[in-house]
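Schema walkthrough. Field components (list of strings):
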Amino acid sequence: MTIAAPTTIRPLQRGFRGRRVTGRGALVVLVVVVLLLVTALYPFNDLYTLLLTQAASFAVAALGLVILIGYSGQISLAQAVFFGIGAYALAIGVTTVHLEFWVAAVAGIALAALLGLLLGLVSLKVSGLHYLALVTIGVQTIFELWLLNQVNVTQGPQGIVNIPRAPLPGLSLDGDQAYLVFCLCLLCVLGSLVWWIGRMRIGRAMRAVRENPLAAEVIGIPTYRVKVEAFVLSAVFGAVGGILYTGAYAFISPDDFDLNHSIIFLLLTVLGGSGSVFGVTLGAVLVVFLPEWLEFLQNTYMAVYGLALILLMIAMPTGIWGGLRLIVGHWIKPARPPLPAVPPLTFRAPASKSEVMLAVRSLSMYFGGVKAVDGVDMEVRRGQVHALVGPNGSGKTTLLNVITGIYEPTAGDVLLDDRSITGLRPHVIASRGVSRTFQLIRLLRSESVLENVMVGAQVGRWAEQAHGGLTAQAMAALELVGLSSIAYEDAKNLPYGHQRLVEIARALASMPSLLLLDEPAAGLNDAEKQHLVELIARLRSESLTVVLIEHDMEIVRSVSDAVTVLNFGKAIAEGTCESILRERAVQEAYMGVVDVVA
Amino acid sequence: MKLYPIHGLGRMAIGLVGVGLLVSACGTSSTGGAKSPKTPIEIGAVVGLTGTTSTNGEYELDAMQLAVKQINAKGGVLGRPLYVDSVDSRSTNEGVVAAIDQLGTSPVALVGPDLSSEIGAVESTIKSEGMPDFIGGTLPSLTHEGNPWMLRNRPTDQYFAAALAQLGVVKDGVKSWDVVHTTDSYGTSAAAYFEAQLKTDGGTLADDIGVTSGTSDFTSAISEIKSSSAKGLVTFITLATDNGVFATQLRQLGVTSSSMLWIAAQPTISAPSLQLAGSNLNGVYSVSDYVATATPEATTFAADLETTYSLTADVNAAFAYDAVEIIAAAITKAGSTSHSAVRNAVLALKNFSDAQGPVNFNQYGDGDSTVYIVEIENGAPVYQTTVALPVIPYIAVG
Amino acid sequence: MSEVGQLLVAGIAIGSVYALVALGFVLIYRATNVVNFAQGDLAMLGAYALLVTLTVFHLPFWLAGLVSLGVMAVVGILFGLGLYYPLRNRGFMPIIVATIGASVLFENGIVAGFGASPHVVTGMFGTGSFHIGSVFVNDQYALLVGILVVVTAFQFWFFEGTLLGKKMQAVSQDKQMALLLGIPVGLMIVITFSYSTALAGLAGVLVSPVLFVSAGLGSGITMNAFAATVIGGFGDVTGAIVGGLVLGLVDTFGGAYISFTYEQGFGMAVVILFLLFRPQGLFGERVAEKA
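Field assembly_structure (string):
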């Protein structure tokens, strides 16, 4: 049964196309236009025009790092490589091969994207940011050497001169100030694009991957693809920055794309504020201008510059933009658009399919010599609440992890709707309608409750459910667990019980057909447990299949239709709650064997 | 206090305005004041004081200050004192261009940069600004790109190559050569010109080894040298530390003056380089545009630099010192500080005598074709002879 | 072949420099999760400390070296307190950037104070050397290798055999737990910084007679030390040493047999390949998270 479209829903953020132009948005556009006019007409001297253009090109390149470091939480010390590929492709293309400017530019961006793809694929194999940093350093080192020594391609250390600027129809960019305005316009456009990316699904997915890659993967985000996409995007922006750079100086040589420059890109991104478009613009301006402003100090000026970097970082570890926000935030509160009142989610009764929704066949999971799961058979019937119980260390969570694809089993099979899901990646399994929660709560702590649940919503197949897009879907899930009133709270500020419910809401927002709950009642007080029981009962009444790992036998007794008992990785009993509690093996497992002394 | 809530983008915009105001507060054009008869004449200097080429910057700047001091002591130029306005290039392309922009068009002439790739970076700016620039780079093409403002009071790599070949191949009769060169704009091009000259003069190139700036160990390169059949070695190594380590290791690994004839190009006999290489360069020859014992002017310059700044004079110091002298002479001759008048006066100088030797500028702006042969004895370069070279027409190589 | 022998000696020599710097690098990383971009520059500062003690105070080399170590230990304390301490709870990005700032500060501060020209210092045994067969061995490098062995042995004894060392290990493995056990974590970290900086300074002292005392001495070393750490397995001390030697040998032999111009690239290429096939390094452990 589908719910009728509620009459009280107000259309909300439906994505970029559907966004209403707000009064505030118009103000922003006006301010930016005014600033561009000022830059176009103010009589900057040659030095400042040049430095601003340089800063603009650096900022565009750093937009790539906003995506790579700020959004997806990775690292790169090879941004100068992409910068250089864009620059050299353009320079060689136009001056040597005599291509059209735009053809050479596109070729450069494409080449950079290709290398970004390769680097992204490599990054998947390395486990850890420090290793990734070193791989990028290695790529940078090799690229520098190649640029310098492959003289027949790159002209070597002599560099390439007379690189023309972008030919715009009807406009000449020969004047340095005109070119500066062009670069700034491009920075605004690309910056807005990156800002928008951050607000949309892909940005949300990247942030989830940054904060908690495992949770992201299990929620259904294809984490590998997201990471590689981040690298490709960072390469593209790097290349565009490099193309702008060639126009600023009309000359490039290998010295311009060395490790020092990659370090500068990293530096300005973190210094400015890695998650923010405006932050990196500030960072670029600072890194380019600070040495000039300090030059009056003469001998010691570069040393003072280094000291300034240290002090700035200590004073504002979240970057200058983060620091400014902190200051401004005392007086100006963030915008919180009113949220729709939506009815809670409901789950459809499934079309007739086989009775067994989830089947586990002879499943074994060994970690070296430890047999965490040892030949377990289990059948979960559609529409039932199936509890998985057992003493600590009996393999319950491991079993859940195998089912959701986190581990590949040593032996055995897992079937969902009669299709094998053994060995599939977690996000693929999630896309088949499986959602779970974790024993240790895995929320995106620095995001709001609403954002957390929206991550769950955006991977779901729920086109039929709620009108009004992701936000409405997320609100509906929150309504179901009873937390819609605190949608804007930061997840980390919530009490434990509420965090648990947010996780459940996230799992529900994707409209799963199978929900796996790992010890949801752990740490809850009695009232919260009661609420949880009511929630599970309601889900069951809407024909959602639930697998529940629980220690609290009261909860198990009140909601479960079937129970499987594990001990030392083996299934020792299966049946209804009453029947398994009567079994001797279960009693012994929980309470030990009583030695009767005669 | 809760004010009117502002959308996130709005805050961005406010911040943009703030930055814009801050930046624009600093970016106004400076217009030069009217020049009264007694105002000092500005000479602009672009030198590497920080960063990787920074060993030369100190020498160039101090040498220029010495020249200015001496000229001012004699009453200045056209009754006005000179002064040097120096800007650090930070040894980067961006820094060098920013330095030129910062100096603007108010100096009567510029001195520097001295690295060929950096000169390439500023070439178009110099052309559009229309002011004389005395460059220290030896890449021949720099004065043949149709830019009338590039003036060079140093021999080009073509002349150095000819001198090297004349000394090594013609005079000493060594036919087979190894070339070791830094893979920067200087080393690569200088080596290319030498190798072309070698072919012309009937020599053979046994091995060409490119070394990256800042190499800390040359063992692999030296074993290549040892296993090649060459009897002669020419090196174009730019950095002082590279020269020091290379010379030391070459001797340690058994290549002596008797086993191989080694002629080093002039960066090897810069003062910092000599200091580091020490006795390992004894017996090594070099071709250079400056050596203290070549002429009385050269000797006087060396003595003055030592006394005033405690620096040993070398090719870089001499280039910068002479540039100032030439500028002063040109202004006096032209009777004006206008850029074009000064430039024309420079080109009109005949046999102008300075620390590097007599200078005569051709129509391309190249003024020095005097190359000395020196031999290093007791850690110092000693003048042997001046190479007699014909005028060499420009060709592009490499 | 004496050529192979000579290359072997050269690779071990330069590899030992990387290893010594990498040792300090690893220790800081294990204790604080910080990648120190200024590690090579700390070696450079050690070289300048040596310069001052040799030329201003005219101490003999061995004494000058010890005094320099002492100076660097103090510098390490200041480094840890000034840089790490204010940022200790902020994730590793701000600290990386702060160490980048420190690198700029050190290199340019030295140029401002001492001038840009490099300086010569005489090694422990003058310009002495010896030969193994026809293979030349620089006394100073032999000394460096010897001291590397001594330091490794000392470190092994210190970390496994003394209470202080065990405490420092505890801090590097689990700070929270160490705190709960009553170990003064802050003090341990300061000691780690001090010791690591002294190690870096030691490398600078030992190598400066060969590579000269210059502001740029450290910049080529940092990345190689980082690479050595990774090859060995991030977090393992033996690994850092093996990593350094492997890197030195790969660079040297690659430079001799493939291309001298690309010498710096071979080590890096090996590192990348290494990480693709054995991401945990030679001796590192594969760590799995509890899901």
